[in-house]
Design brief:
Uridine_kinase-like, binds adenosine-5'-diphosphate, Rossmann fold, two-stranded antiparallel ribbon, alpha/beta, binds ligand L45E5XJ5, disordered N terminus, uridine/cytidine kinase, disordered C terminus, five-stranded parallel sheet, ATP-binding, kinase
Length: 258
């Protein structure tokens, strides 16, 4: 497949190469992929692998065709009372209302309109956004949007062209979350375990797990599942290069209307 792409300049471990940026002007619809799954299931790692396999790491935004954003950037600001609870691990960050869902919807709509967006920067140590800090998301051909509840609200869910669910067993997820939250998110062991028992696990069962049924592809074992990741990468490549069309219009990228 890659051998047919004469203009290609990026190679990777699958031999898949991207050519020049297809969607290098504002206003073109990117292929939007939602990546849901429980906490520490490997959503970010799966997205990273997809980007690596598409040869999309360590590049400038003018060249980058695939970008990844996280639902965690959209946690809403807490009231002082909620902040005090959060500091003791007593705030439910796994409930759909913990996010600024209007901002998610508008941002995703802007992304689909091919607009440049500013995404808030979130700090897990303070449980709040970093003041006046934003990440600029430039128009791209493929946008990965990962998060525990990206398929929860129908208005947002319906906007994805492809929906992936990373399905990693809950013991493994807890075993990964504990060291991560202690090392990277400034938590202590008691806090992580209490938050997990009282909020994370019940909310996973009530809000996240039921969204698995909306997924087009379920990825058992997350980033360990290289076969699933390779298949997804090939599918993305085919869509981007017009080999497979899809009903949202991006398949038309290879014809003259785009
Ligand atoms: N397949 C894997 N094997 C070992 N560790 C992993 C694997 N996938 C993810 N991790 C680790 O588990 C933690 C959570 O992974 P991450 O991709 O951030 O999950 P999520 O985005 O779903 O919260 C991270 O520390 C990550 O390095
Ligand atoms: N201030 C916060 C915000 C979120 N969390 C937890 O993060 C989890 C979602 O992120 P993943 O990378 O694990 O998908 C979610 O389960 C929240 O409990 C937090 O602890 N503190």
């Amino acid at each position: 497949m890659a051998e047919n792409v004469s203009e290609s300049h990026k190679a990777n471990d699958m031999g898949i190469r991207f050519g020049s940026k297809i969607n290098d002007v504002e206003g073109k619809t990117p292929f939007l992929i939602g990546v849901a799954g429980g906490t520490a299931s490997g959503k970010s790692t799966v997205c990273k692998r997809i980007m690596e396999k598409l040869g999309q790491v360590d590049m400038d935004h003018t060249e980058r065709q695939v970008v990844c954003i996280s639902q965690d950037s959209f946690y809403r600001e807490l009231t002082p009372a909620e902040k005090a609870k959060a500091e003791k691990g007593l705030f439910n960050f796994d409930h759909p209302d913990a996010f600024n869902n209007d901002l998610i919807l508008h941002t995703v709509q802007d992304i689909l309109a091919g607009k440049k967006c500013e995404i808030p920067v979130y700090d897990y140590r303070t449980n709040s956004r970093c003041d006046n800090q934003f990440t600029t998301i430039y128009p791209a051909d493929v946008v990965l949007f990962e998060g525990i509840l990206v398929f929860y609200f129908p208005e947002i869910r319906e906007l994805f062209h492809m929906k992936l669910f990373v399905d990693t067993d809950s013991d493994t997820r807890l075993a990964r979350r504990v060291p991560r939250d202690i090392k990277e998110r400034g938590r202590d062991l008691d806090q992580v375990l209490n938050q997990y028992m009282y909020f994370v696990k019940p909310a996973f069962e009530e809000f996240c797990s039921p969204t698995k049924k909306y997924a087009d592809v379920i990825i058992p074992r997350g980033a360990d599942n290289t076969v699933a990741i390779d298949l997804i990468v090939h599918h993305i490549w085919d869509i981007l290069h017009g080999a497979v069309s899809h009903k949202f219009g991006l398949g038309a990228m290879s014809n003259s209307s785009c």
